[in-house]
Amino acid sequence: MKVSDVMHVGVTWVTPDTAVSEIVRLMAEQDIGSVPVGEDGHLLGMVTDRDIALRAVGRGRDAGRLTAREVMTVAVVCCRSDDPVSDAVLLMEAKRIRRLPVVDAGCHMVGMLALGDIAHRANRTIAVELIQAITAHHRSPVP
Q1: Cβ neighbour number for residue 14 with a 10 Å cutoff
Q2: For residue 109, what are the β-bridge partners?
Q3: What is the pLDDT of residues 8-60, one digit of tens each?
Q4: Complete domains list, the chain, with CATH
Q5: E strand or H helix at 39, and its extent?
Q6: Residue 95 dihedral angles phi and psi, to the nearest 5°
Q7: Are strands 79-80 and 99-103 parallel, antiparallel or unpaired?
């Protein structure tokens, strides 16, 4: 099974100059936790709810005056649409990420592969292993 068989398409983008308040509105409307940032079809970064919490609110900055460029993560890990899902899952496990942008051969973003996509469309065992790997640092040792 390829990533293109599991990913979701129609991902909403924002430009680097988009206000953080607009990104928060999009997140709330679409019930999503990350928004890709790009120009001319090329992925430049991602703004996650965690980015906003830590880089804006957590630093006492006025989120209403910030843009995507000021809070986005620029070292974005992504996969290709023709990659096997198993390779994408291994990448998500290794990087402990829940959402993986998907690009085509021309490096244009074509979709997003999220933990939920894998849970609903891929092998259940793979989904459970991914969840365990991503959340491993949250587990407490059992006394």
Answers
A1: 20
A2: 103
A3: 898 888 999 999 999 999 999 998 888 999 988 788 999 999 899 988 877 77
A4: 3-137 (3.10.580.10)
A5: strand 34-39
A6: -95, -5
A7: parallel
